[in-house]
Every structure is written in structure tokens, then in C-alpha cells.
Amino acid sequence: MQSNKLILCADLLDLTDDPLRFGEDSVRFQAEGALVIEGGKIVDRGTKADMLARYGSSATVKEYENKIIVPGFIDTHIHLPQTEMIAAYGEQLLTWLKEYAFPTEMKFADYDHAKQVSEIFLNELLRNGTTTALVFGTVHPQSVEAFFESAQARGLRMIAGKVMMDRNCPDELQDTAEQGYQETKALIEKWHGVDRLSYAVTPRFAPTSTPEQLNACQKLLQEYPDVYMHTHTSENVAECEWVKELYPNSQDYVGVYEDAGLLRKRSVLAHGIHLNDREIDCLCRTETAIAHCPTSNLFIGSGLFRLKELHSRGVQVAMGTDIGAGTSFSMLQTFNEAYKVQQLQGNRLTAFEGLYLSTLAGARALDLEGVIGQLEPGCEADLVVLDPEATPLMQLRLQNSNSLHEKLFALMMLGDDRCIFQTYSFGQLVHSI
Ligand code: GUN
Ligand code: ZN
Fold this sequence. Notes:
The protein is α/β, with parallel strands linked by helices. It is built from 17 helices and 16 strands. The strands form two sheets. Strands 5, 6, 7, 8, 9, 10, 11, 12 and 13 form a nine-stranded parallel sheet that branches. It is globular, with a radius of gyration of 21 Å. 54% of the residues are buried. The structure holds guanine and zinc ion (ZN). Residues 79, 93, 97, 101, 204-205, 232, 235, 296, 322, 325 line the site of guanine.
């Protein structure tokens, strides 16, 4: 009988735990290693010599020269419809939404447009090595239908939701508490848990939902305990002031979501820049994760995220691109900016911490540890084959690197889609340079 095993041979690099807490003890590097893949999953790993001796005679073998295999990147906050208005000039959050995001999102009333952008969006994710993302659609259910259909056809692990928004936005983008509830419920019933797709209840942010709508979100979370909750918090100072006016009875911004019963494991809030002590404690207590989106925070001038402080206090932090306020689909470039955001606060992030934030931390934020985010037998074979010598400058820099950390750090600072040699999802090649 023919075996369907696939063996990928290269250097292997992943994290067994959090290097922000455990340092290099949590870094797992296997020079000249091999992953054995079958049925979409990693079934064994070890040295190339051992794996070939054990399985080589009955498997397809791919040998990579001077490449590093890492887990597929996990983007914990991104907007599908904003793909086409990335790099919009000159505004901060509230005017940026009005001038750029809302008019673009109106186009997603048209299913064909949503489908076309979904294909482009998934191509971008995969050519940047991102194999799982937590995705905002638009208010239109068809935006999420189109996205899930495209992701399903490619066999990807993706999480998405229709935006719920019943005030303070253009009429064309508004639902009501009841309509948002019904449309979300229908999408959950149709898509949540189908293949590798999951649903996220997605109120845009507190200013665009009435308390009635947030209550409808809570009802959905009670009815479907394993769906996700995905929204924004404390990104911009003017936004925070507005939330105080709109929700005078809540203690603070995070308190609005807490009062509505929306915070728990599998809740992901983007940004969290201007949080007070109570809010940070509340995130820990409720096991709510924060998606740190540095390219966005710098681009629309939102502020500097206190990653080290939140992490050391026990908040689960992962990384997001926040396309289209974010300026790159690349998690390498996103880490580049995260590094600089920490430099501006007198903190250092190592390359290993950067890789953690883009892989295992994302899996933890999404409650998917053991499923994705590591090169571990039992995990799904969502992987990236990195080329650390993708450009002449990178070749030169590599020749002058003495340690694994120096090499990886240079790769993460200088690298982008040119370094993503190949991407695998569920053991299938889904992108190749
Ligand atoms: N807050 C509410 N909506 C958005 C959005 O689309 N992008 C960002 N960056 N922040 C938001
Ligand atoms: Zn966002």
C-alpha cells in the first residue's frame, strides 16, 4: 500500500513555551531536522537522518537547502474589507474610519466584490506565511460567506465574523440589535466548526454598538460557548473619551465589554494601548487576549503599546497586522515595528519573543494550543519554509551573524514576503515563491 507521508527536511525552529518568561529554554532549534506529515498533521519530528531511516522508504521527501521551517504565522487581528484601502493618508482613528474605512466597507454589499477581495486577501496572507487569522468582515453577511467559501476551498484554518454595528456609522453599514443577532446566528449555524473554520461574534467597538446590541452579543456567546468574540478597545485617546460619554455607567472602556458579559477565554480585543490598572486586571481575570498591532498603532498615530507591562502582569498578548490601518501583511514586518515600539519605551524584544508572539502566543490567544503554532507531533501541519538569504543584503548580513539569535533577528528585521519560500496548510503546499 502506498503511504501518503511527506517528509520535509530543513532546520526546524519553534517555541515550546513563552520566551518572555522562560528565555531561551523555550526555544527549540533542530539543525538538519525533519518533520513527518500525514493526514494534514505532523506525526513525527527529529533529525533528518533518523526520520529518513524510519520513514524514508515509503514517503515523499522534500529537502530544503539553507532554509528554516517555523510554524505558520497567526494574525490575531485583521480586516478583510480594508485590503484595498491599506496605506490611506493622513488621518487618525475616528476620521480615518469615516474617510476611508466606512466608504470601502460599503462595497461589500456586493457578494462578487467580497469574493474577489477574499481571494486577494488569502493570497496575501499565504505569501506572507500567515496560515491562521482572526478576521473582521463587514456588516454584510455575504462578506463572511464569501470569505469562508474561499478559505474552505483552500483548506485553511480561519476565524471570521460579520461586523455588528447599530449606531454611529453610515446607514448603509448599520444593522440593528435584532438583525445583527439573527444574521450572526445564521452564520454560526452554517459555518462554525465546519472543516477548519470558526466563527467570531464581532461587535466593531463600543461606540458603534448600543447596549442592546452588546447584550445580543452576550446572548450569542451563551448560546454558542465555543465561538470567539472579537472587537477593539482603547486604541485612540479621542475614542476613549467618546466611550466615556456613550457608556457613563461603566467604569471604563474594558468595563463596557465586561458589563455586557463579553470577556472570557476566546475573547480577543485589538490594541489596548490606553488601559488603566483595573482594565489590565480585568483582562487577566477573564482570560481575554490582546492583539498588539504595532504597524497600525504607529501609522494612525494611536500610541505605544506597553507589551512588557501587560505581559508581565499576566495578559495573553499576541500579534495582529490590523490591515488596513496596519501597513503590512507580513508578520516579520509587524515584529520589526513591535521591536521599535518597545525600543521607544526602553524595552527589548528578542527575535525568539517575536517568533513566539507570531506563533504560539497567537495559538494561545485563540485557545488553539496543541492544534497550531508549534512544530509538534499532533499539531496541524501549518508551516512556513523561511529563506534567510532571500536578498543580497540578507546574504551579506547572514555571513556576518554568529548566533542563531543574530541570524533570526536580522531575518525578522529585514525580512518580508521575499523570505517566505513556501507555505503549507494542513500538509498541503499553498504558496511557493
Ligand atoms: N476601531 C473600530 N473600527 C476600527 C477599524 O476598522 N480599524 C481600527 N484600527 N480600529 C477600529
Ligand atoms: Zn482593527
